[in-house]
Write a structure and sequence with these properties.
Glucose Oxidase, domain 1, Enzyme I, Chain A, domain 2, 23 helices, 16 strands, about 15% strand, binds phosphoenolpyruvate, binds magnesium ion
């Protein structure tokens, strides 16, 4: 039966394909007394062998997609599987206790996990405990005959269905086969949505219960343009979706003609159109979409994709690749924004009630625990600065004293490098993100000391409206066009200009087609967005008059009381 769902349209595009459920299966089992121990041993051997060959396949795939180093984690898993001591102990448990293979496996692996986890001062052994847990799940799944999802092994066109996707899950999706994804939770600015847009995979998030409704292999039709998801679509619905997909592709082709065009309004005013990236690989998309700069390089992905803290040299190579790839065009690199929904397996972040309000980003960089990490990153950035036009910015600044402390560390590392005879570029601009209302309110004071602002609306909106950006239940409060947000943004832009500084925006709002006319009218200097939104925005800017947009913005700022009033006004002015 056809079922229709509506979620948040998070990444444009349309797809019709079979569902692939990326959900953890139920691995519960009963302990049974058995008599045929040989049969249990044989079941165990078979499950171990299947797991071993499955891991080999996953590893081979990971080597090509993620590289040798990142794939090495699977070697550790295979070593656990091949450990003769562990296998012998599981078989001994089957024979001594006369229990089924599931129970014997669980008993022995739990014992090993307990011992290794108990070695709290030995990080290596703690990691082995995690490996054993992972491997046990796989073997247990084979014993129980249930499917353990292995997204790396997908080799046909599918639509991924999941509770949520972590940034690293998303990074592993192969665009060739993954035609779309649909999740229970998340919103337009959650990191899985941002990555989907970078990868150009259509996505609908925040459907609440897609994982309960969809079954493996069921046909789905997904529109990342409208947020619609249809389970078991009729022939007619399928053809409607295909048509919408074709119309979108035609629209994209029209925008593509603007790749090398200048970003000027109908009356000749220029705005800088930049793109956001997460890895050096994304630079290709930036250039393909004709962006004039990188307005935000989220460096935390460099940390998240690694097995351990990336070294100064590793980071230097990544920053150099981005600067060189942009051929002298500006690149704004944000220092690591770890925390919130971005965790590192090798860095012990405390469990917090409100991680988005907790220990994250610059707060970590300025702490004793984060000082070394921060200095390493700044040195790598300074060394790379000679390869292009580098701008550095700090995330999550609430206090002017935080900016001063970060700038001081930056100056110290710069002086050290120069003393060591390492060349460093002149005129590196150092700015901050405006993501916290306190900084937005005090922008006039910050503007005296920073070189630029980049407004991070993804966080600024959630903090101003007190509405978690990941929570679809409060997504109605997440209002970029609310007059309160517009006033904060305007305050930041005007404060920057009063001190002769520039103000950009790298939150998702910068590429929002309803917000762009307002931001132009407020005089925002730089717009940084998903690379895939750049051409659409250039097309919009080209047909608007900057003086008229000023009038629009002034009216919205002084007369509007609700988001709805703002939207109506924008429609009137951009018809
Ligand atoms: C923002 O908060 O707007 C931003 C760009 O940073 P992130 O989305 O990485 O939190
Ligand atoms: Mg942010």
């Amino acid at each position: 039966m056809t079922t229709m769902l509506k979620g948040i349209a998070a990444s444009s595009g349309v797809a019709v394909a079979k569902a692939y459920l990326l959900v953890q299966p139920d691995l519960s089992f009963e302990t049974k007394t058995i008599t045929d121990t040989a049969n249990e041993e044989a079941r165990l051997d078979a499950a171990l062998a299947t797991s071993q060959s499955e891991l080999q396949l996953i590893k081979d795939k990971a080597v090509t997609t993620l590289g040798e180093e990142a794939a090495s984690v699977f070697d550790a898993h295979m070593m656990v599987l091949a450990d003769p001591d562990m296998t012998a102990q599981i078989k001994a448990a089957i024979n001594d206790k006369k229990v089924n293979a599931e129970a014997a496996l669980k008993e022995v692996t739990d014992m090993f996990i307990g011992i290794f986890e108990g070695m709290t001062d030995n990080a290596y052994m703690q990691e082995r405990a995690a490996d054993i847990k992972d491997v046990t799940k796989r073997v247990l799944a084979h014993l129980l005959g249930v499917k353990l999802p292995s997204p790396a092994l997908i080799d046909e066109e599918v639509i991924i269905v999941a509770e949520d996707l972590t940034p690293s899950d998303t990074a592993q999706l192969d665009k060739k086969y993954v035609k779309a994804f649909v999740t229970n939770i998340g919103g337009r600015t959650s990191h899985s949505a941002i990555m989907a847009r970078t990868l150009e995979i259509p996505a609908v998030l925040g459907t609440n219960n897609i994982t309960e409704l969809a079954s493996e292999g069921q046909l789905l039709a997904v529109s990342g343009l409208t947020g619609e998801v249809i389970l078991d679509p009729t022939e007619e619905q399928q053809s409607e979706f295909h048509k919408a997909g074709e119309a979108y592709a035609a629209q994209k082709a029209e925008w593509a003609a603007l790749k090398d065009a200048e970003t000027v309004t109908a009356d000749g005013r220029h705005f800088e159109l930049a793109a956001n990236i997460g890895t050096p690989k994304d630079v290709e998309g930036v250039n393909d979409n004709g962006a004039e700069a990188v307005g935000l390089y989220r460096t935390e992905f460099l940390y998240m994709d690694a097995q351990d803290f990336p070294t100064e040299d590793d980071q230097y190579e990544a920053y150099k690749a981005v600067l060189e790839g942009m051929n002298g065009k500006p690149v704004v690199v944000r220092t690591m924004d770890i925390g919130g929904d971005k965790t590192l397996p090798y860095f012990d972040l405390p469990k917090e009630m409100n991680p988005f309000l907790g220990w994250r980003a610059l707060r970590i960089s300025l702490s004793t625990a984060g000082d070394g990490m921060f200095r390493t990153q700044l040195r790598a950035l300074l060394r790379a600065s000679v390869h292009g036009k580098l701008r550095i910015m700090f995330p999550m600044v609430a206090l002017l004293t935080e900016f001063r402390a970060a700038k001081k560390i930056y100056e110290e590392e710069k002086a050290k490098l120069i003393a060591e005879g390492v060349p460093v570029a002149d005129g590196i601009e150092v700015g901050i993100m405006i993501e916290i209302p306190a900084a937005a309110m005090l922008a006039d004071q910050f503007a005296k000391e920073v070189d630029f602002f980049s407004i991070g609306t993804n966080d600024l909106i959630q903090y101003t409206m007190a509405a978690d950006r990941m929570n679809e239940q409060v997504s109605y409060l997440y209002q970029p066009y609310n007059p309160s947000i517009l006033r904060l943004i305007n305050n930041v832009i005007k404060a920057a200009h009063a001190e002769g500084k520039w103000a950009g925006m790298c939150g998702e709002m910068a590429g929002d087609q309803t917000a762009v006319p307002l931001l132009m009218g407020m005089g925002l200097d730089e717009f940084s967005m998903s690379a895939t939104s750049v051409l659409q925005t250039r097309s919009l800017m080209k047909r608007l008059d900057s003086k008229k947009m000023e009038e629009l913005a002034n009216k919205a700022l002084s007369e509007c009381a609700t988001m709805e009033e703002v939207v109506t006004l924008v429609e009137e002015y951009t018809k």
